[in-house]
Write a structure and sequence with these properties.
Length: 259
């Protein structure tokens, strides 16, 4: 008798079940945030609570740049697979939101570099990613690969952590402005203020697309799993930061703060 993998059994079970009603499907997606979003992570609480020193905040900003820089790449990977012009038009603005449209719109990546400039980090060093933690690089590249290789609706679903983003941005703006007056001001928090309006717009479109296009129970479950995967991508970055810059296990070649 040939063994049957647990993964195959799970897929078969999902395939045999009827699709979830739309409201139940949406509820399953939204339930991922309170369970897995990275606002629950200890490093998040240290950052927003003013418990980190400047060097630790620098390490966070430098590593998070890797994620910000990967976002338009993953969006370009998704667009390259899309035959629907309406979806391509809608998704293209995500790339422009991050890469900008100079001279009038600098874009999210430039706003992030204003943050790292304000923290005293050399811009060329940040952009090079030379000082990034290995786990950070692996995590963000896994996200780009996921979006490039998964079925289109599942790839779209992975962006739905944006449903949970406004709350964390509000906490970040108020907490960091209050707790780090020596090196955080209104100017360097511009990235997060812009995302307060961008993230809900993007999330509403993506959620509507996923709810309409995930037809089978198996597709629905895969979309929920995609949101979990994206939460894991965000979570593991904070795991790496905590291990390196709170516990003091900085790997060779990674950024080492002066303070």
């Amino acid at each position: 008798m040939n063994p049957v993998s647990l993964e195959k059994k799970t897929a078969e079970r999902r395939g045999s079940e009827p699709p979830m009603p739309v409201n139940e499907f949406e509820a399953a997606i939204r339930a991922v945030g309170p369970e897995r979003y990275h606002d629950l992570h200890p490093f998040h609480h240290l950052l927003h609570g003013g418990k980190l020193n400047k060097g630790q905040v620098q390490a966070w900003a430098l590593n998070r740049y890797c994620y910000q820089a990967a976002v338009p790449r993953k969006d370009a990977a998704l667009i390259s697979r899309v035959h629907d012009r309406e979806l391509r038009r809608e998704w293209t603005h995500r790339i422009l939101d991050h890469d900008g449209q100079p001279p009038n719109e600098p874009g999210g990546i430039e706003r992030w570099l204003i943050l790292t400039d304000g923290l005293g980090l050399d811009r060329e060093y940040v952009v090079s990613r030379r000082g990034a933690l290995p786990a950070t690089v692996f995590a963000v590249e896994s996200y780009v690969t996921f979006v490039r290789e998964q079925p289109l609706t599942v790839a779209v679903a992975s962006s739905l952590t944006e449903l949970f983003a406004p709350k964390i941005h509000k906490e970040r703006i108020s907490g960091m402005l209050e707790n780090y007056p020596g090196f955080i001001d209104e100017k360097v928090m511009a990235y997060f203020k812009r995302r307060l309006t961008q993230a809900p717009r993007d999330a509403d479109f993506a959620l509507d697309y996923v709810l309409k296009n995930a037809k089978t129970r198996e597709e629905q479950e895969a979309c929920v799993d995609a949101v979990r995967f994206k939460c894991n991508v965000l979570w593991v970055q904070l795991d790496a930061l905590y291990h390196a810059y709170v516990n003091g296990n900085v790997p060779p070649g990674a950024f080492r703060p002066e303070t």
